[in-house]
Structures are given as structure tokens and as C-alpha cells.
Design a protein that fits this description.
Length: about 350
Amino acid sequence: MKTLKIILTITIILTGGSLFSQETTYKRFPVHVSFVYPVGIHGVQSVSYTYDFSLNILTGHTGNIDGCAIGSLININQGYISGCQLAGIGNITGGDVDGLQVGGIFSMADNLDGVQISGIFNKCAEAEGLQLAGILNTSASSDAAIAGIANINAGDQQGIQLAGILNQAKAVNGVQIGLVNIADTINKGIPIGLVSIVRNGFYDEFVFSVADYQNLGVSYKLGIKQFYTIYSVGMNLFEDQLWVAGLGFGHLHEVTPKFSVQPEIICYTYYPMDFVRRIRDTYIGHFKLGIVKSLSETIAVSVAPSVYLSLKSNRGSYSVYGYEQSLLDPLFDINPASSNSRFGFGFGLSLGLHFR
């Protein structure tokens, strides 16, 4: 960010200390060529022209573009862009962009109707289209935003927000996908991530359970009723004594004020209790269908039959595959030829006590 401030400072100096004046009437000329503003075809008057094509060898400062602007460093546009704006470092447009902005580091515009692509960050007010950035997208409202690190939307998100770490918006009418998702309201859509915080319509609960595949367990569910994340830890005390860790997703559908159905998908992995001699591997994915009865506003009980798929490995050194995680034998096992793994299919059952 410090480097970006330096670049913007240099840009302001090169453009005569003011990025945008209040010009309202623009002359037309087909082509503009600039070395560094104001060294160009129309000098300081280039901000008063609408061009079909602008070539800025280092930097350029123009009025409007009805076509294409290309700069090796920075393009600065007084008014609108209708077409494309391509720069090695960045683009700054004081008006609307109807088309494409591509910047090696950044792109900035008032409103966007098209696509904004930059190596580090994009910024605009209303984005009717796609923002694609290596690190950060910011907007006041957006249709679609994809970033390597974060998308920050101060208003409504109408489509998808996809980020490597953080998504933030006020009202979401679409999908948020990231490690952390934050929204004031989910109108139509879902957040998908490890942590999803929705200020209005927030759902969470603790569940203490007993099951054949996790004899004693506690789960925390976080998100919205339509889609939430499950974090689970527990232990097995029969057969092999094991620690259990699980991660999954679920949905709560209220059939009546007292009864709900709760389909969930959760994957468990098993560890020996000393954590040292993990000589085999056991991974099991359960597809659960919980039947939940509310006893009060804060307490409920459930029964959840499940089917599972298992993957157990002997790491090529043992005759036994994985760990014995359940008193119930699998319905069947499959041993692929010349493989150290065994695949299984079976059934499970859990009973839960819910605190909301």
C-alpha cells in the first residue's frame, strides 16, 4: 500500500497537481499521443478532448475515451471510458467505465459496467459486472467480485463474492465464498466458508452427541439456517481409542414450530489418543438426516441416521486398514488391486442434545 501511495503521488505531480477538473464540454479528436502529461499532442488541453484512441508512452491525462487507451505506466481519464483502458501500472477514471479496465497494479473508476482487472486492487462505486483483483476489490455495490485476499462491499452484493480470505457486504443476494464471510443480511443466497457471520438472521448452536462413530462429541454450528458450517471434536472409547475431528456443512428446515429436519454432510478424521503412533489413516464422510424436536426456544433433541463412505489406509506397512471407529461393521468394503487403501460403505446413528 505504501508503494501505491508513492505511485499516486508521482502521478499527481506529473499531471500538474490535479487529477480531475470540472470540464463539462469536450472537443473531439481521433488520436492522442502523450509521452508524459502534459508532453503530448494537445499539451495541458488534452483533458478537454474526447479521443477514439490514446497512446500514453509513460502517462497520459485525457478527457473521455470512445475506444481504447493504452499506457505503459498510468492512464488518467477525466470523464468516461467507453471501450477499454489498459495500463502497465494503473488506470484512474473520474467517470464511468463501460467496457474493460486492465491495470498491472490498480484500476479505479466511478461506476463500472463491464470488467475491471488488476494485479493488486480495484476500486469503484457501483460495479455492474466483474471486479477481478489479485488482492483486493472495493465497491459501494457489486454484481461479481473475485479477489485473492478480500472483497469489501459497502452496499449490496447482487451476485458472487469469491475471496481467498474475506468477503464483506451489507445485503447479499447471491453467494459469498471465502474463509470468512461477513454480511448484515442474506436476502437470497448463502455464505460458504469456515466462518460466516450474518448480523440479521444469524444462526448458531452447540450439539452434544453420542454415536457409534463418535462415542462422545461436541459440535458447533455457525452461519444461517439455510447453510451453516459444522466444527466437531470428540472421542471414541470402544474398539480403538481415538480422538475425532470433523468439519462439514448443514441445513436446518423447520417443518413445524416443534419439528425440523437437518440434513448435514461432515467429514471425520481419526487420531490415536497419544497422537504419536498414527500408523494408519481413517477418513469418513457421513451424510446425515437429523430429525430435531424443540423442547424450548433454546433446547432441542435429535436423532440422525446416516450413511457413510470411508477411506482407510495401511500406509503399505500393516495388514490392518485404518482404525476401528465403530461398533457397527460396514455394509461392504472394496480393496482396489495393488492399493494400500480400502473403501467402505455403511450406516451410522447419532443422538444429540442441542443448545441454541
